[in-house]
Design brief:
globular, 4 helices, 2 domains, 7 strands, two-stranded parallel ribbon, five-stranded antiparallel beta sheet
Length: about 140
């Protein structure tokens, strides 16, 4: 009986490991760093497959790159950090591909809370950084 319990536990551990690994693979396969451009239709498909009307995104303001399509902004932030970005340059936003103008980009992410950079909210408190982010989004997202 004890041996059977150990086998069952090992089987359960293996299933949990495989499930977690599959989840990680799905997340990794979804996330993209946009080095050229992405069109709104692709963002709409991402939104429909995820949150419905919104795509989480992270901008590296130094490299002028955009990362999109993850469950958490922190996953996209980690992707940039693995690629050599500095955390001080990486900011989280939400994109609403069916909206336009100022409503297209929302400055709201937990990764933006950085008292050491004088950013004490989930938004982006610096107007200069918000302007940089909007410029990069405009460069990377084709209308």
């Amino acid at each position: 009986m004890e041996n059977g319990s150990a086998e069952q536990k090992n089987h359960c551990d293996l299933l949990i490991y495989c499930s977690n690994r599959e989840f990680e693979r799905r997340i990794e396969n979804r996330m993209k760093i946009i080095e050229d451009v992405i069109d709104r239709e692709e963002l709409q498909r991402m939104a429909a497959a995820g949150f419905g009307n919104m795509v989480k995104a992270v901008v590296d303001i130094e490299a002028e790159l955009l990362a999109v399509d993850a469950e958490l902004h922190a996953d996209l932030e980690a992707l940039f950090l693995q690629e050599g970005s500095l955390q001080a340059n990486v900011w989280g936003i939400n994109l609403y591909p069916e909206l336009s103008g100022e409503e297209f980009v929302e400055f709201d992410s937990m990764i933006n809370v950085r008292p050491s950079q004088n950013n004490k909210s989930r938004g982006v408190d610096s107007e200069a950084i918000r302007t940089q982010i909007l410029k990069i989004v405009g460069k990377r997202v084709k209308s």
